[in-house]
């Protein structure tokens, strides 16, 4: 029986998240979600179950509403790095979810690294 694209995505997301849980040494998790129109990222503290910082193309202050391209992902990565630094976070695990690590997701991770966040 063939799996649907959605089933494969969920399997991939759970596989990535379970691997991160095994090697988590008290670090925060940088979780990415990409839709067809927007991209968002959250810095999550799994111990307390809280979101420490977040950034999205849906935020009006960034001027990226409705943009889902590599330039927007780069700007979001830079913004989350600045917000993480403001919250006192310097290290995090990158949780790509079920998304492949290329294109927009890779651009976001590289921009966060350049912004000073150790991934």
From TrEMBL:
Keyword ATP-binding assigned: no
Source organism superkingdom: Bacteria
PANTHER family xref list: 39S RIBOSOMAL PROTEIN L18, MITOCHONDRIAL (PTHR12899), LARGE RIBOSOMAL SUBUNIT PROTEIN UL18M (PTHR12899:SF3)
Alphabetical list of Gene3D superfamilies matching this protein: 3.30.420.100
Residues making up the signal peptide according to the UniProt record: none
Molecular functions per Gene Ontology: 5S rRNA binding; structural constituent of ribosome
Keyword ATP-binding applies: no
Family the UniProt entry places it in: Belongs to the universal ribosomal protein uL18 family.
Keywords from the UniProt entry: Ribonucleoprotein, Ribosomal protein, RNA-binding, rRNA-binding
SUPFAM superfamilies cross-referenced by the UniProt entry: Translational machinery components
GO cellular component assignments: cytosolic large ribosomal subunit
Subunit structure: Part of the 50S ribosomal subunit; part of the 5S rRNA/L5/L18/L25 subcomplex. Contacts the 5S and 23S rRNAs.
Protein name: Large ribosomal subunit protein uL18
Example GO biological process: translation
Known function: This is one of the proteins that bind and probably mediate the attachment of the 5S RNA into the large ribosomal subunit, where it forms part of the central protuberance.
